[in-house]
Amino acid sequence: MFIEQISVIQAIRMAPHLQNAADRLTATISKFSLEGKIGLCGIALIVMMAIFAPLLSAYPPGKITGGSLELPGSDHPLGTDELGMDIWSQICYGARMSLFIGLAVACIAGLGGGALGILAGYLGGVADQLVMRTVDVIMALPAFPLLIVISAFMGPNIFNVIFVLVLFSWAKPARIARAQTLTIKGNAYITAAKNYGATPFYLVRRHILPEVLPILFVLIIGITSYAIMAETGLAFLGLGDPTAKSWGMMLHYATSFRSIYFTPYWQWWLIPPLVALIVLLLCLAFVGRDLERVLDPRMRQNRGA
Amino acid sequence: MKKSILSGFTLVIVAFALITAGCTSQDTGSSTGTATNGALEADVIRLTGGDYGYPQPFSAFPRGPARYKVNMIFDCLLEKDEIGLIPWLAENWTVSPDGREYTFILRENVRWQDGVAFTASDVKFTFDYEKEHLPIAGGIEDGIVDRVEVVDDHTVKFVLIEPASTFLYKLSSLMIIPEHIYSTVSDPATFLAPDAVTGTGPYRLDGYNREHGSYRFVANDEFWGPKPAIKAVEFIPVSDELIAFEQGQIDFSSEISPDVMGRFADNPDIRVSSQPGVWAYEFYFNMNRRPELNDPKVRQAFAYAIDRNELVEKIQRGAGKPGNMGILPEEHIWYNPDQPEYAFDAERARTLLESAGWKDTDGDGIRERDGKKLSFTLSVGSDEVRIGEILKDRLGNVGIAIQVRALESKSRDANLKNGDFELIIAGYGGWGGDADFLRTRYTDVTSASVSSLIPQASIRGYRNDRLNALAAAEMTELDDEKRKRIVYDMQTILSEDVPTIPLFYTTRPDVWYISRYDGWMNMFDHHARTHSKLTYLERTGIAAKR
Amino acid sequence: MNERDRQTIIFRFVVTLLVIVAINFLLPRMMPGDPFSTMASDIQGEDVIVMTEAQREYYFHYYGLDLPLHEQFVSYLANLARGDLGQSIQYKMPVVGVILLHLPWTLLIVLSATAISTVTGVVLGVISAWNRNKGSDRLMMTGLIAFAEIPSFLLGLILLLIFSVHLRLFPLAGAVTPFAQYAGVLDLVRDVAYHAFLPVLTLSLAQLTGVYLLTRNTLITVSTKDYIRTARAKGLGDRIVWTRHALRNALLPVVTRTGFVVGMLMGGAVLVESVFNYPGIGLTLRNAVVARDYPLIQGILLIVAVSILLCNLIADRIYQKLDPRVA
After folding, report:
1. Best to test chain B binding among A68, A90, A262 (most B CBs inside 10 Å)
2. Buried b (16+ CB within 10 A) or exposed e, A56-70
3. A226 and A77 in contact (C-beta within 8 Å)?
4. Do the domains B2-200+512-545 and B279-506 sit in the same CATH topology, yes or no?
5. Which of A287, B86, C58, C119 has its CB surrounded by the most CB atoms within 10 Å?
6. Total-model pTM
7. Which of A84, A152, A243 sits opposite B385 (nearest CB)?
8. Across the interface, do B259 and A157 touch by the CB < 8 Å criterion?
9. Domain spanning B2-200+512-545: which superfamily?
10. Which fold has domain B279-506?
């Protein structure tokens, strides 16, 4: 099993150009477990839902199109919330918002942190020290309490929420990317390539990126679900952006509706975003685990050391 | 095998749905318990707790529930019942013809809870002390009282700088503190010793637990006035009001949703009664920042376009009353019923906007005039976003574009205070208070000496000279009947001008077990029954029902 | 661990502390709004008392908020050095006192949950690794991972609904029965445990998967290592190999993780605390943020940060003690 995986890694490493990306992807996916494949389908479904939200739903999510808290029916497949806005529309558009927050945070933190890590690893010296000490400090900070304080300070706004989440999630990718870069830099073939006059840009693109990117990709998946979870938590404490209708915000509105559990409303108001969130997080977790297993068996081994 | 894992997970979700379905009642709607009078005395009554600080006038939190806990221990010269002010520590009083001297005859045989006699010098001391050390509430602002004189042990005289129609009302929240204890305290905010809570009032503090937010008050057997009707009042921590109430952990609740009132319909022991609507959300225009709002027609169009009944139905779940443009709620003792109504009428709003020159010429659904769009940012606190969403939709229907901007509530307050907004919503109580708030909120009339008074809210850019003239007259008019007529006229002007839109007054349901205690009453100016001192006393003597 | 690592750790400790102190000081003061300018209520139906300008100035002066920032900072540092975290604006008592009232509750649920989840996680991990790739292993793994992906406060809500609302087995809120008269210490312990049960269960379930996976995966990795093969080759029985060699090595990362988790939960328990209305430090922080109680926000952040650092240090020490290579 391990041998297979390593051969995949080698295959990926050897695939020299981007046009082979599709092949690599297929190769990767073919190594997925059933959960991973289901996770992938789930994510694809949710992404489609987000993209085609206007086609899938009959109403804009912020329009009053029915009575207050209407039961699910032909007009409103999942009923309406207390303002008379369609819940199915909110789920569809909410997928956009939740995915946007998750992916935005993950991409900025993953790629940005990764880039800083590679830079630090490649340049070494003062730059390295600077980045690594910052990483040290960030990782030692009490993340969630600071999240609360900073989000309250910056105000409930979607970009502030993203900013704050990025602030606390770029450190891990940076550290791992740096470690990888250092390992690769030490290889003989890099020294050889340098001697042949390879530019730093070429080295990074040809040798370092192909090694680091798969790991970053795994991390990005992890950060995505962390960001979605954190946003939901902030929303739950009333610190999210109330005008951005993410699934977390839907949960917030439903749970802060007084005595919702003693009315029938939670069945069509609380359950849909709850199920949607859990499904999305589960799919992300399954895909993340499989990617980790297939792309980077070393990461799991290194963890313990 | 793998399939079974997934289907297992599905099962878990379904099972959860089923389990929770079991604890759901299908009842909705509200009703009122039909019962005769219940208990008028009780041994222990339990109410919802929460930490509001140590209950003395300087260390409690600046919030209503804190202030009224302090009021259980301390007394004022006057108290409030359902109709108006009643004599309390002051047995009676006389006012000099020029309205500047109030002489109070204090009740005799009043003792502090430590046995020391209460005298006129305690009153003078309280006033002087609170000039240096501000209490959380109930202090009398600078610029009203010139000095306080002790005439004899039981007579005290307040000399005012100039006549003030609201002076007695203000005195009804000035809690008298013991001179023999506080005179040696230099920093009362941190004075948390047991004797800090020595008052003359009907209850003593018997227990206070800060981290759990629990209080226990016990009847003061030596109390000078009407007998306390409840031997012990406990405030205990509660997570879900409905469950706590249903399980009988608390005897009274005002935090239960109107959606579940149906659960109590068949229980003759539970009384459901709405609070008076004296707590409201207000919608402000900033006419300085957006001069186009300085046109009464535009503001009237807002009033017609906003369906205030819809807000009551959807936001309040029916437990509210739509706002009056004359500001004062129907429950206010000086409410003027004869004023324009502004029932929801989108067509009328469109007509008004057309006549004011705002037309949608480019067909984008937003009106414009001279190339300027009728488009505004509406700032709301996090909890008012749902109101904002409805307003956005309704105002959009008549061609006014709204961008809702959610702010954390302290930031919203700062913006409101500094005038940093175009439109803004804020909710607060006190709409049943002395009608003088029409002056402080909607006019810039302040007497020369009362300079420190800031308007409670910021009516930016609005000014009506007729209203100002009425306000100036109201401020010093000591005859209640004449003053009431002035206040009526002020309401008429306000309802024509629409300087601000009260969106709705909240009339949330109170529920209680009448067999436990049935003496709950409202002060004439306040919505919360648990805050009234007379709620906890026998209604005899000076506290008798009028 | 060599001298350089130790220096790194001390450096990290000091820098982190300084950063926290700086953030602590600046952040609350940069927040919009101040503790005394409340204009409207954030809770419907609650009256707030609007202060006059004079009152506001009085309180600004009283709490030294009218001083220039650098003077405030100097006095903040001076007080900090004396162990004085200042006066809470909301509670009108020393911040240290407020923290001491709430910290024990958080410590109680966090430490119990960590202990429970660690022990259970290790046991399940060992079972799983033992039966590696068999049905029971796969089932447990998938099930526990699915569990871990449900945010803890949602899990808490679900537990609250089932056990407190529906079955009425546990209380809805609080840490002790209000005004209870206890017959004895045992009675008190029982009451506290009764109230802490659901919060602890929630936190334990949320942490369980991490420990479980770590134990399982390390065990599996370790079992392929040379010294295990050697041990096996020496003819040692499976059980002895597992307990004496594999488990000992596998526990190392678990110990480190436990240190991190305790630190993280100190502040991260806020969501669970708010579900159960449990009077811990996280809920206090949230309320302090809402009330803009600067000194209290600073104090709690500082305490939480220091606890996290301490937990990491302690985990590090234990790691050294356990690791045969370090010892």
Report:
1. A262
2. bbebebbbbbbebbb
3. no
4. no
5. A287
6. 0.80
7. A243
8. no
9. Dipeptide-binding Protein; Domain 1 (3.90.76.10)
10. Dipeptide-binding Protein; domain 3 (3.10.105)
Nearest to B390 among A83, A264, A271 (CB): A83
Distance from CA of B405 to the nearest CA of A (A): 7
Tell the CATH topology of C98-326.
Answer: MetI-like fold (1.10.3720)
Q: Cβ of A133 and C15 within 8 Å?
A: yes
- A3 in contact with C at a CB cutoff of 8 Å? no
The answer to whether C54 touches B141, Cβ cutoff 8 Å, is yes
What burial class does residue B241 get, using C-beta atoms within 10 Å of its C-beta: 0-12 exposed, 13-18 middle, 19+ buried?
Answer: buried
What is the DSSP code (8-state) at residue A207?
Answer: I
C41 to chain B, any CB pair closer than 8 A? The answer is yes
The Cα A235–Cα A241 span in angstroms is 7
Highest-pLDDT range among A287-291, B410-414, B420-424: B420-424
Q: Choose among C28, C154, C286: nearest Cβ to A274.
A: C154
In whole numbers, what is the pLDDT of chain A averaged over residues?
82
Domain boundaries, given as residue ranges, for chain B: 2-200+512-545, 279-506
Q: pLDDT tens-digit profile of C71-81? A: 888 888 888 88
Which of A84-88, B353-357, C78-82, C310-314 is least confident? C310-314
**Partners of B428 in the β-ladder:** B280
Give bridge partners of residue A173 from the DSSP assignment: none
What are the φ and ψ backbone dihedral angles of C77, each rounded to 5 degrees?
-65, -45
Q: Which two tokens stand for residue C319?
A: 């790691």
- State the Rg of chain C over Cα: 24
- Minimal C-alpha gap between A44 and chain C (Å): 19
Asked if C15 and A149 come within 8 Å (Cβ–Cβ), the reply is no
Report helix, strand or coil for B510: strand
Poorest-confidence range of A10-14, B195-199, C140-144?
A10-14
H or E element at residue B471: helix B465-476
Are the C-beta atoms of residues C301 and C20 closer than 8 Å to each other? yes
CA C121/CA C119 separation, integer angstroms: 5
Cα angle value B138/B141/B146 (rounded, 5°): 120
The answer, for A103 touching chain B at a CB cutoff of 8 Å, is no
The full set of domain ranges for chain C reads 98-326
CB B126 within 8 A of CB B97: no
Contact yes or no for B515/B39 (Cβ under 8 A): yes
**DSSP H/E element including A304:** helix A297-304
Say what the ipTM of the complex is.
0.75
CA-based nearest distance B214→chain C, Å: 7
Do C138 and B6 touch, CB atoms closer than 8 A?
Answer: no
Percent share of chain B, pLDDT over 90: 68
